[in-house]
Amino acid sequence: MLVAFGMIGSSISGVSLVSVPGWVNQNGMTYIQMCLGFFAGFVFISFLLLPLYYRLRLTSIYSYLAERFGRRSHLTGACFFLLSKLTGAAARLFLTCTVLHEMAILPLGLPFWFTVSIVLLSIFLYTRRGGTENIIRTDALQTFCMLVATGCIVWVVSGKMNLTPLGIADIIAQSPMGRMFCWDASSTQFFFRQFINGMFITIVMNGLDQDMMQKNLTCSSLRAAQKNMCLYGLCILPVNLLFLVLGVLIYTFAAQSGLTVPEAGDRLLPMLVGSGVLGTLVVFPFTIGITAAALSSADSAMTSLTTSICIDILRVEREGANPQRALRTRYLVHAAVALTFALCIAIYHLAGSGTIIDTIYRLAGYTYGPLLGLFSFGLFTRRRVVDGAVPYVAVFSPVLCVLLDYLAPILWNYHFSYELLLLNAALTFLGLLLNSKTATRV
């Protein structure tokens, strides 16, 4: 239960606290459709992927690709995980650093990079000493802080609007932003489209993610890990529903107060808190909540990236390796990961951002797609691939997806949403099939 509760903070992070409420202005509460798909994805992970990982006793889940296909496939999987986790975690941390800087550091006249440096240094020092076991404990505390902060903000906003719990329900029912389900097949928010997208996003961003699986593999048994995963999936639904309710409330409050709503939905909640419109009572829990969630997400990401680089790529734990040299290598890799985080944040800062959570899901479609294709081919076929061809197939598939994403609106008047993940995986699967042969054993 501790692992499941702590994973909430790692998964949703501070991005959800500010981004999910910002989504309701355009898409209403239809994000709940994806959340239902999330739970289906957790069930898939519990009863298909976890038994595989426990049976093979994996430290890095990408070691499976080495056993199934070969060394180059293993390296390909690990590299795509590094790219996926780095870009996603850096995007989450960028948003959090931006909010903290504008609320706390900017009034002091200090630059944005001062905030980034302090946050990254804190995470680096903590994860260097703590390790995964310590992260699991603090994840639970950080998740608790974030949920308390969200509850406090809902309470304050509803108080400003003189709303009881029934009044909140009435506001949601009467507001066009309260729509939860979309049955228009031509819409990007169509129920089945969002449900399926949510299911596969969960499979790749949890079941094929070394960070999330590294925590699950600390459970004492497969049965305990399966209980943990299903409980975690159930917790995601009410937590995201709370964020959506908060979104409807703050947009309604802004409209009633005559406030100018920022174009980027990510900015509305920080603007309301930072401007003092909601009072000083919410500033402390909001700052603690978003900081705790950011640290929970970033510290576990930094640890899992270090683990994957050292085990999958550098192979520091191979038989006969010098323990002292391996430890020194881990420290150097950990420092390099922290510096790379800073570089990614710089790129996001220069490029600007829309809704960060939308950006994260779109990036996942390109970077996790080849992983989904590789694992699907390994699990559902008995064919052997040409190991040397795997890196080329894995790179070609997302490149082709970029081209199709650009041409689809022009040629077919179709706009891809997060189903790019499935297209990417299907292209990877097809490429592997064309470079494979039958095998008598897997």
Account of the protein in words:
The chain is built from 16 helices and 2 strands. The chain is mainly alpha-helical and 442 residues long. The protein has one domain: Up-down Bundle (Sodium/glucose cotransporter), CATH 1.20.1730.10. Strands 1-2 form a two-stranded antiparallel ribbon. α1 packs across α11 (283-313), α4 packs antiparallel against α13 and α11 (283-313) crosses α12 (323-351). The longest helix has 49 residues, at 112-160. The radius of gyration is 22 Å and the shape is globular.
Give the termini distance in whole angstroms.
35 Å
CATH topology label: Sodium/glucose cotransporter
Mean pLDDT comes to 81
| Major beta sheet summary | 2 strands, antiparallel
Strand content: under 5%
Please identify, by name, the CATH architecture. Up-down Bundle
Continuous helix count: 16
Q: What is the class in the CATH system?
A: Mainly Alpha
Overall radius of gyration: 22 Å
The CATH homologous superfamily = Sodium/glucose cotransporter
The spatial strand order of the largest sheet comes to 1-2
Structural class estimated from helices and strands: mainly alpha
Shape: globular
- Give the helix proportion (percent range): over 70%
Report low-confidence residues grouped into runs of 5 or more. Answer: none
Assembly type: single chain
The total strand number stands at 2
Helix-strand sequence? HHHHHHHHHHHHHHEHHE
Number of domains: 1
